[in-house]
Amino acid sequence: MLLERKVVRIIRKKAISIPKKRANRSLLKKVMITSSLALGLSIGSVHAAENDDLSKIYHVYVSGEHLGTVGDKEVVETFIEEQVNKEEQNYKGLNLAVNEDISYVSEFAFQPTYNNSKVLERLSDQITYSVKAQKLEIGGEEIGYFKDKETISELLKEFQSQFIPEDQTEDLDELYTIEEDTEEAKPNQDSDEAKVEDQDEQPEELSTGDSRIVDVSLTKDIELTVEKVKPNELLTVEQGLQMLEKDTVAEQVHKIEDGDYLQLVAKEYDLSMADILELNPDLEEDSILQVGQEIKVQDKEPIVEVRTTVEEIVEKEMDYSTEYVETNDLYVGEKEVKEEGQKGKKKIHYQIVQKNGSEVERKIKEEEVIKEPVDEVVLKGTKVRQLKSKPATKSKPKSSSGSGFSWPTAGGIITSYMGPRGGGYHSGIDISGVSNRTIYAAEDGVVSSAGYQNNGYGNRIVINHQNGTKTTYSHLSFIHVSSGQKVSKGQAIGVMGATGNSTGVHLHFEVYVGGSAVNPMSYY
């Protein structure tokens, strides 16, 4: 207080010449100001003198919320580091990070109060961990999170290798790679330098009977993004394969309506009979369908498919043509081979596109004829045989196999016989009321025509039995054979229908001998 008293005395000396009242007010005012200043200096000096006795403590905040107070923030930081290291033992190879934001506010206190163990206990309950992961999407659909790009590369290679022959996977150094400077997955692309080297090392030329994969890709786009996720959300390569092998589109079915038959359903959905029978293994080609019955017309669609391009060289035979030369030296129905035909050979270089190992497209890249075919020349008789008298017996005519024809339908009844009908002439028999609509060849032979005819027959098949005899099958809804094809007795050749000029579903069956229609019933 020595400083304070000294100041007061100085002030009083200066105030002697001031009038009494004014001097008293001024004196009081200056005493108060000076006293306050002196007091402040005194307190500041005390605070500075005792500052060495204060302790620094830290208030700990987790994501903005106060958790507690510790004596040293290193206690918290060391604890978090230990916890992260401990957690990383459960996820080897991963670098974990704490999700929450840990912050501190420091404070000096004369009597500090803090509880390190309680703060660490609370902190242990609140902190969670995450890892930076690669999110894989294919065609816009999320597959999952993976440790890194290398894991995704391994997954894609493993997935594609399922559809590549083992003896050819070694020829493909990298089926799929992830570029480091992009978040997209792309097919492996050689550098310019590598391309120059490849010009000197061209792949070996394919030999006849060999095949080689020239390209592998996926049918949908790949997209990668980096996200922070919980460690247990990461997928392994095996788990990723399970995700890729899942189907995304449910099966599609067709409900049978009145008038539907299997071939018509297949055509409506652009399927072959083989396709629809594969989708419906409980059905057969001639199965009778019931109204309301459900037929599977589309299988489940995979998330993504592996598209491979294969080049293949094969050797194929070339069929020869048959040239018929009419001669009067032979009777009608008789034939004689004048020159034997010889098949040719050609080498075909195919480019084949496969999806998940199944062929979807085949193109001829190059074709080379090795040996030209030699046409066959057949003499065909035109001489008419003169009969001296009618046959003494009424035995049934023989077919080319030496027996009668087989019935062309699955049972049924004859609804119209051969003969005059409605002011015209019915040149065959009509059959309906069958157990199923399959049509069968009545005898061995070669299909001379198969297709739609505008003369009222609709879809019609004509079979030549090579002995001057032909059979015809008209009004079919579906034809299974083609012109030039050999057929056997009883072989399914089509499906009964109502095409052309028809009053309903039935088979119009005709038999011709020497170009003239004969009664089919004479063969049964």
TrEMBL record:
Pfam families: G5 (PF07501), LysM (PF01476), Peptidase_M23 (PF01551). The keyword Plastid does not apply. Keywords: Signal. Residues 385-397 have a biased composition (Basic residues). This is Peptidoglycan DD-metalloendopeptidase family protein. PANTHER family: MUREIN HYDROLASE ACTIVATOR ENVC, PEPTIDASE-RELATED. Residues 303-384 form the G5 domain. Residues 1-48 form the signal peptide. Residues 252-297 form the LysM domain. Residues 184-197 have a biased composition (Basic and acidic residues). Residues 180-211, 385-405 are annotated as: Disordered. SUPFAM superfamilies: Duplicated hybrid motif, LysM domain. GO terms for molecular function: metalloendopeptidase activity. It comes from Salinibacillus xinjiangensis.
